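Suppose a classmate hands you a notebook page containing two proteins, each written out with its sequence and a corresponding row of structure tokens. How would you begin to make sense of it? This section walks through that situation. The first entry is reproduced here exactly as it would appear on such a page.
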Amino acid sequence: MSSTEIAYQGVRLDILNQVYGPGERIKEVAVARKYGVSRTPLRQAFGRLISEGWLENIPNQGVRVAKWSLADLEHIFDIRVRLEPYLTRCAVDRLDTTQLLALQGYADDFARYSNTAGEVAIQKRTQANHLFHNTLLMASGNPRAVAILNNLVELPLVIWTFRQFTPQQTNRSNDHHYEIVQAAGARDGCWAESVMLNHILAAKNAVKSRLASQVESAGR
């Protein structure tokens, strides 16, 4: 494994394990020493993490862990609400048998880890969720809209979102996946669109509520 890859994987795992919190500055010297790499490959790793949305480069301040404000989340979810249900409806009539079976499999994978705690379970749910949604998006026949969503919904944000879910909210998300599979199997685009809308709105309100409570607690 190259020095750049060692630094990339190490910092990424530290963020996932909350060694560094949202908005926390990452000090080059300390990280380079921790992973036994020079500053050149470390900066290359930082560049990759910035491009993927894990880190932010702040002028005259350095690199910090990405964070999302309540306004950021509002904007992201508002765009998803307008695009993703529509793309889901478009996808339903275009999905072939292989894709329908894949959707069922991804829903099963998500469900398998829905009631399991820990970082591995969150990673597994995140992967299954990404594959589920991406299968629908890619079948929609609208690559421009898909590109907008893929640039908007960054993996760190998805992982952070799942961290905010209660077990009940995770189970509700799981139920939505299965209902979308049912709607797709019935070739009912309106049904699938409606469930996807509820799915995204439920996630939006769960995250908003959790973030608002965190802000309130921090202000005490």
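The notebook's second entry, a different protein, reads as follows.
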Amino acid sequence: MSDVNQLLQTTKELIAFRTTEDRPEALRACADYIELFFESSGLTVERFENEGIPSVIVTKGTKTPTVFLSGHFDVVPGSDDQFEPQVKGDKLYGRGALDMKSGDAVMMHLMRDLAETEHSIGLMLTGDEEIGGFNGVAKLVEKGYGAEVVIIPDGGEAVHKVVSKEKGILRATLVASGTNAHGSTPWNGENAISKLAQAITVVEQLFTPVDQHPDNHWVTTVNVGTIQGGEATNQVPDQASATLDIRFTEADDPNVLIKKIASVLPAGVQVNATVVASMLNIPLEHKMITPFVDALAAHGRTAEWTLDSGASDGRFFADKGVPVIISQPDGANLHAPGEWVSIPALELYYHVIKDYLDRISR
């Protein structure tokens, strides 16, 4: 069985790959590394690529094992130094340390360590979770890969914090139209950026202000992600747009939200919206989930069910009726400067999952 030093080393090597959306060569190089990791393991290793997104699947010869370990090796952008992993005390710092190359490393070692056992497991690692997962897990599920339960180390920020719900995702674009004119004679035009600014203000008023959120932030939220408009400072712009990232709870129907947004927009502004992901609800009493709670207890941790404002690839399995177990090694600051993972928690997470696999294999 692997020890903490091996888990740490693999995590560091994975972090060193700058696997952001705009670096397809790094994504492929990381997939190469994963394939090489399983060389001579006796396991079946397959490589797929959809729209330039690589995925690596490792199995014992079946597309439908009892358990799939699922993760992603793409990360959000970061500064150069974040791709140079650093150990400080009992923490490992780096982009993807928590989200989620530490989880990938744990699963890779487990898969290889259990290659010759009777455990019915598989591993899938994909390269596009951060941009939706549609060419990774979604395509693999379409190809018939599945399991009775899926473990995803991509939420909770602690080994014992198990995600019970994830918010759904609604992506919307506000498009404002105006009329060009010279910047010195704005009365001769209609400023699309001004219309867009008004639209953003009234849309934000439909949602609970951040300073009024409950402690768990389990409310529907909106974030203005990007704004585009105008071609010259001395010209009244005739086009402007803004993208909105809306995360909704069970309290809101996304189709009703779209209608509400459309109803408050000023003249000359339209909304185009798409539901990217439905809410994820985990059946906590499912027979494939309760043994994970027991495994945590056996290693000194009491399960805490947590609500996650983010989303994961778990929704693609849940849509097929497959229960998903989402937790991860202890850490913090995912997607932010100072992202870290606890080194002792790498080993703990390894043993908790190993214990869980032993329990459901009896």
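A careful reader of the second entry would note: Residues 4-165+280-361 form a domain with the Aminopeptidase fold (CATH 3.40.630.10).
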